[in-house]
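Hello everyone,

My group is preparing for a crystallization screen and wants a predicted model to guide construct design. The compound we'll soak is pyridoxal-5'-phosphate. Before spending weeks at the bench, it would help to have a computed complex in hand. I've included the protein sequence and the ligand's SMILES below. Output in structure-token form would be ideal because that's what our pipeline reads.
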Amino acid sequence: MQPHAVECLERSLKTEVTELAIVGAEPVFRDVVHVGRPNIGDRQRLWQRINDLLDRRWLTNNGQYVQEFERQVAERVGVRHCVAVSNGTLALEIAIRALGLSGEVIVPSFTFVATVHALQWQGITPVFCDVNPSTHRMDFRRVEERITSRTTGILGVHLWGGACSIDELTEIAHRRKLTLLFDAAPAFGSSYKGRMIGNFGQAEIFSFHATKFVNALEGGAVVTNDDELATRMRFIRNLGFRDIDDVVCVGTNAKMNEVSAAMGLTGLESMDDFIAINYRHYQHYRRELADIPGITLLPFSDQEQCNYQYIVVEVDQSRAGLSRNDLVRILNAENVRTRRYFFPGCHRMVPYRELYPEAGRFLPETERLTECVMCLPTGSTLRSEDIAAICQIMRLAVAHAADLGAVLSKNCVDVRLHLMEEASVPTLVEPHGQNELL
Ligand SMILES: *Cc1c(COP(=O)(O)O)cnc(C)c1O
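Reply:
Good plan to model first. Here are the tokens for the complex, ready for your pipeline.
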């Protein structure tokens, strides 16, 4: 494991509201704590592989490590084919093209924008479907009302690394004769009803981006049990080349390079350790957050394998007394960079908000979630005492929500003075310099 990149100040947990950084006190973390930092794995093994590929002078074009990476991913998933590519977005684009999707495709708006861009990029209209509020994943009961004569497919997303309603979507796709593709970018290593994600629909895609728990620096893959589809995707990935001088279709350059594959292989070797760390962090958060009113941790199923790479909480302002945005600001002041995934929702981003200005009418749950969901830090560089410190800040903030809420809109100096007066502590606060307020 790497040396820890974050260090909690050597002091006990904050216990008073006046100790919060949002009101001018020192942040609990000296260095910034990110929502996730890349997992590296065994550096020695990585350097060996990189030296080896340099010695062999084979840097890309279906090299030995790419082939080995494809074999290992396919084996772990239990799928016939893995086509490794340079990132998850291209994996989506290639699968969409190879499957011949056109017209309209049903997709959630509550997802990373890459899912939707991959459709729009190819002139396909994304038709947004609302999500189930308890899972945050596409609500299969809302899918059929979005189908029109132009619909050719459904693009489900295994958000947060957990499966969407695969059985129900499979049934709808079959009955309505639609193509079913899954964006499983965050779901490598997770299962659905005991079977690994990657085996469902016509194809599924994974991302091995640096922010995913197994990474290839940048990387992605399409997995499928369809031989013919796999062959077509291999051509498309390599500019349509079937053989030297033999181009059989229009294609792009989406090849994974050997250094990425070396990184991916190194990550795969430590994958079980990464999952164990994520799981420990998830359980720790679960215990710490259980007693904070209005803060709900999104649960993962105990019945399935899961990579636990996201710590997702919903903030219920009516019970917490603070909004999600308030908590983001409070934690940000402590140098904790939480993320408002997936704010503001794809349908409110350019170009979709101009192209489909009415989309929000169909997305009440999506609109609600984009206002109350946030992701908390996890991963191999985070220590359990960091989690305790983060949760204590949240606990303190919620306990003093009335004070903080009343003053969050004012500037930091005022807030601290106000709170100190309330606590009848002598007001010894130095006003901040002009620069700090800019
Ligand atoms: C990470 C991610 C992608 C994009 O993968 P890249 O490798 O970054 O291109 C697509 N969809 C979802 C849901 C993701 O989480």
